[in-house]
């Protein structure tokens, strides 16, 4: 007997309630909806207390379903070792790109991409994370061309290459000279070279040398990686490095137009502070910011390439290095003072000015390249302790603009304005560029600031570091979010804020807050979406994304099967909605297995996954793609293999058994 029939009163009450509910729906089907909120948007605005500004922000950023964003922002993923592709102005996250860190959704490091990750090994040791900092889009004549993306790993001194046809990482190169970097990646205006500047000075190769040998044994570096566009790879055999004084080189930028062929890097710790707070020494933060100026490095890249090509280098850790002495003999390098604790150096769109921010100076300092050339021609009269010639600040500087506290990084727009992030003021300043190519009538002057939330690092404007910035949008990459979102415990997201910069003067409007919860996005570049030429599916069935051609292992329908040659087993499999073929794979413990799966789908988005428990295999096989993975069948048993993407109504049936017979 059921519970309810033993309690007829409860049954009666329930029936009455059900009848009442039914009548309500029949009489007025909208009653339920009205309880949730108003039907017309004006009432929604009123109920939510939205201002005119809020409504403008909403309609500027709202993307109706199925319509596309105008820009794509590639943001570094900080110590998550990834890159994020984000649509603007909606700020929708479109894609995470696995770079230095294994990532199971893409199968990266779980059967796919293992070769790429192996390229990032340091002396045979797997390094399975990175601290991505500065993404750089490939350029043609100083403008983004939408073909490639590069990014550095600050933690381990590595550089990665991403192909923007499929948004996948194709190569990681390890810098043999250095275990960290920072001033990269930056491309030369036609992407012939990718620049990787160092950060914390160290002995070559990170070999041992005591700190009291710092001044003689430790070095700074700038590496010039040759990019082979045809091959889609960095060619280490045509790459070289330049030795710099053991200062801490920070950010760099490549020249463009009139400065094409030059590289600019700033530094901190020209004091050569050694830290050692535990021994009663001034900590690095005090020692490295003792002096009122540090030095910007002005490096003649074209001349350096000539020296490298003439073979005037020394091989260190397998890399040709232009030693500091050689660099000075060939006039490759000059210094000019820059204000206290400089951080960013950014080349203006016409290449004519360099903007530097000193973290502990409330100004941006603008240098004119013409002044620099004149000062070089006049002959520098001073050198630093490493004999690098110094060009006097009063000779190289063009202007200073007081922008606020803690200036870091500068970007540009199409109206002749520059934007500088202010870490301490937690704001972004807009200032006019007084040069004749920009806003000569306004002169070099602060136009206004907008608060951001909170502790901004980099900012990015649309195509804002190219020869033709687009303006319109600025994204502030904030380190702290504090009170902007619901609490998620002590660890909070970073906050990317979208700012409308389309209006002149001091008018800037904050439009949108985007929490991001993987690593700490450092820098981003924003490209017009129509410059990207992504593939909808891989061009042909059997495609190997690493070689970007049809794989010789590709499995065509009818070629499936399992073959044995001694202890070597080859599995050849196809995947199509909603089955794998074969579905039974019978092998023996101790076998070495080489397994290829080809996704023979041609429909867009018909991706199949493939997972084998215990053996750590999890693939993402996109339409047309072929993947080959290998493993040793060390454990006997029955292993269910299944598709990890919900690809069809019969996705749960897209499965198979791998039986591993025990060794006698
Ligand atoms: S930076 S800390 Cu680009 Cu401001 Cu690395
Ligand atoms: Cu294929 Cu699920």
Description:
- With 664 residues, this protein is mainly beta.
- Helix content is 13%, strand content 40%.
- It is built from 11 helices and 44 strands.
- The strands form 12 sheets. Strands 8-9-10-11-16-15 form a 6-stranded mixed sheet.
- A hairpin with a 3-residue loop joins strand 2 and strand 3 (92-98).
- The longest helix has 20 residues, at 8-27.
- The chain is globular, with a radius of gyration of 29 Å.
- Mean pLDDT is 94; it is low at 1-6, 20-27 and 29-34.
- It binds (dicuprio-$l^{3}-sulfanyl)-sulfanyl-copper (RUQ) and dinuclear copper ion.
Describe the structure concisely for a colleague.
The chain has 664 residues and is mainly β.
Bound molecules: (dicuprio-$l^{3}-sulfanyl)-sulfanyl-copper, dinuclear copper ion
| Percentage of residues in helical conformation | 10-25%
**Low-confidence sequence ranges:** 1-6, 20-27, 29-34
Structural class: mainly beta
Q: Give the strand content.
A: 35-45%
Summarize the helices and strands and which ones pair or pack:
Elements: H1 8-27, H2 31-36, H3 41-48, H4 52-61, E1 71-76, E2 82-88, E3 92-98, H5 114-119, E4 136-140, E5 143-153, E6 158-163, E7 168-174, E8 184-187, E9 193-197, H6 214-217, E10 220-228, E11 233-244, E12 248-254, E13 262-268, H7 284-287, E14 293-300, H8 301-309, E15 314-316, E16 319-322, H9 324-329, E17 333-339, E18 342-347, E19 353-358, E20 363-368, H10 369-378, E21 382-383, E22 389-390, H11 393-396, E23 397-402, E24 407-412, E25 417-422, E26 427-432, E27 445-451, E28 456-462, E29 471-478, E30 494-500, E31 509-516, E32 524-528, E33 543-544, E34 549-550, E35 561-565, E36 568-576, E37 579-581, E38 584-588, E39 592-599, E40 608-612, E41 617-621, E42 626-632, E43 637-642, E44 655-661
Parallel strand pairs: 11-16, 36-39, 38-44
Antiparallel strand pairs: 1-2, 1-32, 2-3, 4-5, 5-6, 6-7, 8-9, 9-10, 10-11, 12-13, 13-14, 14-17, 15-16, 18-19, 19-20, 20-23, 21-22, 24-25, 25-26, 26-27, 28-29, 29-30, 30-31, 33-34, 35-36, 36-37, 39-42, 40-41, 43-44
This protein binds (dicuprio-$l^{3}-sulfanyl)-sulfanyl-copper and dinuclear copper ion.
């Amino acid at each position: 007997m059921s519970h309810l029939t033993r309690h007829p009163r409860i049954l009666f009450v329930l029936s009455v309630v059900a009848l009442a509910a039914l009548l309500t729906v029949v009489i007025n089907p909208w009653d339920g909806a009205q309880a949730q909120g108003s039907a017309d948007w004006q009432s929604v605005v009123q109920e939510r207390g939205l201002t005119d500004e809020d409504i403008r922000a909403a309609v500027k950023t709202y993307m109706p379903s199925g319509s596309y964003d105008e820009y794509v922002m590639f943001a570094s993923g900080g110590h998550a070792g990834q890159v994020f592709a984000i649509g603007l102005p909606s700020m929708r996250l479109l894609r995470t790109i696995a770079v230095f860190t294994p990532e199971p959704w893409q199968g990266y490091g779980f059967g796919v991409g293992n070769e790429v990750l192996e390229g990032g090994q340091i002396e045979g040791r797997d390094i399975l994370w990175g601290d991505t900092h500065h993404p750089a889009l490939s350029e043609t004549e100083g403008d983004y061309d939408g073909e490639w993306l590069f990014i550095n790993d600050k933690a381990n001194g590595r550089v990665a290459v991403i192909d923007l046809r499929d948004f996948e990482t194709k190569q990681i190169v390890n810098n043999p000279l250095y275990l960290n970097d920072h001033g990269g990646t930056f491309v030369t205006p036609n992407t012939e070279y990718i620049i990787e500047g160092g950060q914390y000075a160290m002995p070559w190769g990170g070999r041992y040398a005591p700190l009291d040998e710092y001044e003689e044994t430790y070095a700074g570096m700038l590496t010039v990686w040759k990019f082979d566009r045809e091959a889609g790879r960095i060619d280490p055999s045509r790459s070289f490095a330049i030795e710099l004084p053991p200062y801490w080189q920070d950010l760099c930028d490549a020249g463009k137009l009139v400065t094409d062929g030059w590289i600019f890097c700033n530094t901190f710790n020209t004091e050569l502070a050694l830290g050692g707070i535990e021994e009663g020494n001034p900590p690095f933060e005090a020692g490295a910011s003792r002096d009122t100026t540090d030095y910007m490095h002005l490096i003649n890249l074209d001349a350096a390439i000539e020296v490298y090509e003439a073979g005037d280098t020394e091989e260190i850790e397998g890399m040709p290095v232009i030693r500091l002495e050689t660099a000075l003999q060939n006039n490759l390098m000059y210094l000019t003072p820059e204000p206290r604790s400089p951080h960013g150096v950014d080349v203006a769109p016409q290449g004519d000015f360099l903007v530097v921010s000193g973290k502990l100076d409330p100004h941006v300092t603008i240098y004119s390249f013409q002044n620099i050339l004149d000062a070089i021609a006049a002959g520098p009269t001073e050198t630093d302790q490493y004999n690098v010639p110094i060009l006097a600040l009063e000779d190289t500087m063009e202007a200073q603009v007081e922008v606020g506290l803690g200036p870091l990084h500068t970007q540009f727009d199409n109206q002749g304005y520059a934007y500088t992030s202010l870490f301490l003021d937690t704001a972004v300043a807009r200032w006019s560029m007084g040069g004749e190519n920009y806003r000569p009538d306004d002169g070099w002057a602060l136009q206004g600031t907008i608060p951001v939330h909170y502790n901004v690092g980099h900012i990015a404007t649309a195509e804002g570091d190219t020869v033709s910035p687009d303006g319109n949008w600025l994204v502030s990459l904030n380190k702290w979010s504090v009170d902007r979102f619901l609490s998620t415990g002590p660890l909070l997201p970073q906050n990317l804020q979208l700012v409308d910069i389309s209006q002149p003067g001091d008018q800037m409007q904050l439009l949108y807050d985007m929490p991001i919860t993987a690593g700490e996005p450092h820098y981003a570049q924003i490209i017009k979406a129509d410059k990207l030429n992504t593939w909808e599916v891989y061009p042909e069935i059997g495609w190997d994304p690493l070689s970007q051609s049809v794989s010789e292992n590709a499995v065509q329908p009818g070629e499936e099967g399992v073959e044995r040659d001694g202890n070597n087993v080859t599995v050849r499999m196809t995947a199509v909605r909603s089955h794998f073929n074969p579905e039974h794979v019978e092998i023996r413990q101790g076998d070495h297995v080489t397994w290829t799966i080809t996704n023979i789908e041609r429909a867009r988005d018909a991706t199949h996954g493939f997972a084998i428990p215990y053996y750590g295999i999890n693939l993402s096989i996109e339409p047309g793609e072929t993947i080959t993975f290998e493993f040793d069948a060390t454990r006997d048993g029955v292993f269910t293999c299944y598709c990890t993407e919900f690809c069809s109504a019969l996705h749960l049936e897209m499965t198979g058994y791998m039986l591993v017979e025990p060794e006698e």
